[in-house]
Amino acid sequence: MYKRVLLKLSGEALAAGRGFGVDALFINAVAEEIADVAKSGCQIAIVVGGGNFFRGIAEQAIGMDRVAADHMGMLSTVINAIALQDAIEKTGVFCRVMSAIAMHQVAEPYIRRRAIRHLEKGRVIIFAAGTGNPYFSTDTAASLRAMEIGAEVLLKATSVDGIYTADPKKVSDAVKFDQITYMEIIKLGLQVMDTTAVSLCKDNNLPMIIFSMRERGNILRVVNGERLGSLVTA
Known about the structure:
By secondary structure, this protein is of the alpha/beta class. It has a single domain (4-233), classed as Acetylglutamate kinase-like (Carbamate kinase). It is 37% helix and 20% strand. The strands form two sheets. Strands 4-3-5-2-1-6-10-11-9 form a nine-stranded mixed β-sheet, sandwiched between helices. A two-stranded antiparallel sheet has the order 7-8. It is globular. It starts with a strand and ends with a strand.
């Protein structure tokens, strides 16, 4: 169904419940799913978070200068990007890491036209270091990069199977939304993405699908048009 997508992966997801670091078995499983999408003919780009190492707004950053803390968070996304790149390339699919912060020895600089060219050649791209600016989350980076490369949809893989009225892990009677608008997310104060990212998607009519990455093959199913999770529209 989709020809070009952007997938947002959180750093916490790559830790697979450990809380810190990268779970090798889980990241290899995710890499195989991403490779299946690339081999199906869909152009896929990825934005990774860094919460499994450091978050600029987490308790571990209390007392730190916000700009310095955010830069540390950006660098942690590069660690995740390199780990994911290695796992993807072991499947036989070419992959490039493009960083918003210049670090030529380990990643290409982010250049929009070069990124689009990589996608057209069938390579997977991983966008690292967020937007390269403090005060902006990797959710915002995902929204921005999706629009820059002309992605048809923003896919957010999480530990839950969609958007609920409350955290389903804590509230047993939370109700799931099959479809919802960005304005409703803002009005209800749902913690799906940060407000900046939601506003960017809303203003530019970029649809988003929130789905669970716990079940093997879900990424390919969503790309092929199967209705999973929750659809968010403008």
